[in-house]
Amino acid sequence: MSKYWSNSIKSVETYVPGEQPKGGNFIKLNTNENPYPPSPAVAEAIRCAADERLRRYPDPSCDSFREALAGYYKLDKNQIFAGNGSDEILAFAWKAFFEPGKPIMFADVTYSFYPVYCKINSIDFETVPLNDDFTMPVEPFFGSRGGVVIANPNAPTGSCMELEDIERIIKNNPENVVLIDEAYIDFGGKSALELIERHENLLVVQTLSKARSLAGLRVGFAMGDKDLITGLEKARDSFNSYTLDTLALIGAAAAFEDEEYFLGTRNSIIRTRGEFTDELRKLGFDVVESKANFVFASKKDIPALKIFKKLRENGILVRHFDKPRISNYLRITIGTPEQMKETLQVLKKLTQNHIDE
Amino acid sequence: MSKYWSNSIKSVETYVPGEQPKGGNFIKLNTNENPYPPSPAVAEAIRCAADERLRRYPDPSCDSFREALAGYYKLDKNQIFAGNGSDEILAFAWKAFFEPGKPIMFADVTYSFYPVYCKINSIDFETVPLNDDFTMPVEPFFGSRGGVVIANPNAPTGSCMELEDIERIIKNNPENVVLIDEAYIDFGGKSALELIERHENLLVVQTLSKARSLAGLRVGFAMGDKDLITGLEKARDSFNSYTLDTLALIGAAAAFEDEEYFLGTRNSIIRTRGEFTDELRKLGFDVVESKANFVFASKKDIPALKIFKKLRENGILVRHFDKPRISNYLRITIGTPEQMKETLQVLKKLTQNHIDE
Questions:
Q1: Interface TM-score (ipTM) > 0.90
Q2: Which tens digits make up the pLDDT trace of A127-147?
Q3: A247 and B248: CB-CB below 8 Å?
Q4: Which residues of chain A make contact with B54, given a CB cutoff of 8 A?
Q5: What is the dihedral of CA A183, A188, A194, A198, to 10 degrees?
Q6: Domain check: are A341 and A225 in the same one?
């Protein structure tokens, strides 16, 4: 604490990202990174662009990347905003669309950055309890006073909503923005993108950090009515004119030109997720049905923290959240089949020893 | 205007960066970019890093880059913060150190992003008039109620303060942060860096966009007491955990390992600035004494906007600010000797024709 800090900085509890260990040879299943490298086309495009051009500022409007996305998603460029990861876009959205005194709504168990954005922007919020099976309820989100934020698939549960339920929520909040955070949508969920033409209050946020294997490049994007996009641009232009560097813009555009690679790696993860879920259940774990690149699992008779520690001792990092309702769960990122096999071996031994104890 | 925008977004007047033309073959002297490419070591480091690593999140603490800076500036790593350009660091500083109801002070003619940061964060401000010769006064900054921000060298004037005057301002604001924005310090000014050990309320902000030729990479850094650095980290971690991508971190560190290249290009710009200033004065221009990579110049008898347009017709972009006190000035970035020669030829013809008219 310093006397030079503002009151808001003194009181905020910041978001804590998953551990990025510097040494060691960990199997890293704790931050939902993709186990496969990005498309070779991305690295190639970046290598070609790392030259004299870096002396110039990037294009502040990110046009070439937005045009690539517009072509890919069949949208107009002015329905797309590009940002430094989806987190930055969320930060801009809180600033642009939510108002102190008008509480927004999100689930009680969801991405833990949402309450941080609320606190730092003095935005009140109400949490909506997930159903007992961790699926997202629908009606409780109707008629919010300030806006709605839903991660779909939800994190850290992996549970995914039907599009018709999302549309009901949008229709029942005509005066407020409904933000659908689709960081994990490419792993089997159905995007709300197709609803943006019909609903000017819908903002869909996606990222290249997960299904596109580009967490290291920091690129996300939002799609919605052009007036919402202009709102995000105004928030950005009151903060930092250029948040995407030249190499990130070029690499990100290249990622959308290699569909075959994208589908191949994405489908591998979906397949591995299915196999890993089956094996976990055989070991007696409760596993939430996941449409993301992770599973959320619990073993009633073994404390999650004990499993967490045992995995760590064996060089395997997963994520544990010490929070109400989910403190006995672990979020385990889907890696390669080999990595999941190693993980299962540790878990098998642990559950066996536990029975023997 | 959209009914979904927050009140602060509805009312903010955003910062407008200099034009980044997409076509044409302009001599671009409008955004203070460096005319020389970055060190070849930077491009090489980036090309080597554009690989499988991109699937992983960057190091959120930016340790390797901060360690490179710590070695270069003889500081401790925890006295350094790394951000997405100095603009992002300024945005975090406004959030971390300034408070609604406690007005901050900055010059009436200075970087035009400062009032935008104030507006979006509901921070009041008082402007201190520059002296008639555009130098920065000292005593008027004593005893601010909320903090002081000084660009040194100042933009768009290029004028630079003595370090002892800066220290007097710091000493006379013991309860508030004094932020020295040193985006242009490497072109001949003396950095306030040496004062940070003595003054825990001093924050020095620098960038790689100007003297390091890396505007396209979006990297800036701040130096100060470790408690101020922690304040910036808290602002960042309430916004976006990773704002510097893997390639930017690696390229930025490499830029500080090639001192010879840095000094060579920097000295060329200083030399060209001197020659260009002399020639402008021969043509009858008033030129503010500059320690930056630009000059601020005016010709009493020719409207700046007319000169601006004539230069543009000839493929030369410079910057004009339609603002009180400076509307008859142009800010001209220092390019290569050849580019400045071309610029002078157009200006010579223009001043000659003006006399003939």
A1: yes
A2: 999 999 999 999 999 999 999
A3: yes
A4: 37-38, 42-43, 213-217, 251
A5: -80
A6: no
